[in-house]
């Protein structure tokens, strides 16, 4: 899949700054719209520790209404979680409406 990505594309800081604010506003509007329509959304971030995931999540959540999202961090499974099927502990945190 990554072979199809054009890694030569880049944005200047000015292009990024000009384009990011409308996207943040749109993200906030979509969050409220999904909540009003009772459409659950899951956004999953995966990566190594110290790879910038926390910074990315912080940037994303600035645009969101804090009453409308939860962040769940993964940590090693406890004995109760290991007694269930492997994805059970993640299913416990999925949004249901």
Task: Write structural notes for this entry.
By secondary structure, the chain is mainly alpha-helical. The chain has one domain. The chain has four helices and no strands. The chain is extended, with a radius of gyration of 17 Å. The two termini are 33 Å apart.
**General form:** extended
User: What is the tally of beta strands?
Assistant: 0
Helix content: 40-55%
Computed Rg: 17 Å
Biggest sheet character: none
How many separate domains?
1
Secondary-structure element pattern, one letter each: HHHH
Low-confidence stretches: none
The mean pLDDT is 85
The number of helices is 4
Distance between the termini: 33 Å
Strand content is under 5%
Give the class from helix and strand content and strand pairing. Answer: mainly alpha
List the helices and strands and how they pair.
Elements: H1 13-36, H2 53-62, H3 79-82, H4 88-91
Search tags:
mainly alpha; 43% helix; 4 helices; extended
Task: Give the structure's gist in a few sentences.
The chain has four helices and no strands. By secondary structure, it is an all-alpha fold. It has one domain (12-91).
